[in-house]
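[PROTEIN RECORD]
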Amino acid sequence: MPARIVRLGSKRAPGEGPRIGTVRRPPRGVPKSKFSSGNWYDVWLPDLSPSDALVKIGQKAQKTGSEPAWRTFSRRYEKEMKAATPSRILDMLAALSKTANFAVGCYCEDESRCHRSILRKLLKERGAKVR
């Protein structure tokens, strides 16, 4: 029953389970009542999203394709995830991945330039089953 790492708003996979939105802000222009039915997320967990300042660095890395900006983003995001609250949440998700279906996601189109690629790595490092 592995966890999935997904793009929020995309079609759900069969048996995916609840979606967890690890984003700083809810989707623009989408009423709260449509978050789940629109395949955005069932639960909002901004504790695993990058800080506002870090989001700007990540967006720059996405737009320009800058490797140095992406490395800076990655390094700083991993440091943010070492704080007590995010670290405990990652531990909990890693444990849940062994017995429950769920998905973790963000809005970014390209996972390789999105914090969810780092979440995938951090979860695996904690022993999570990730599809």
In short: The chain has one domain: 4-125. The first strand starts at residue 4 and ends at 7.
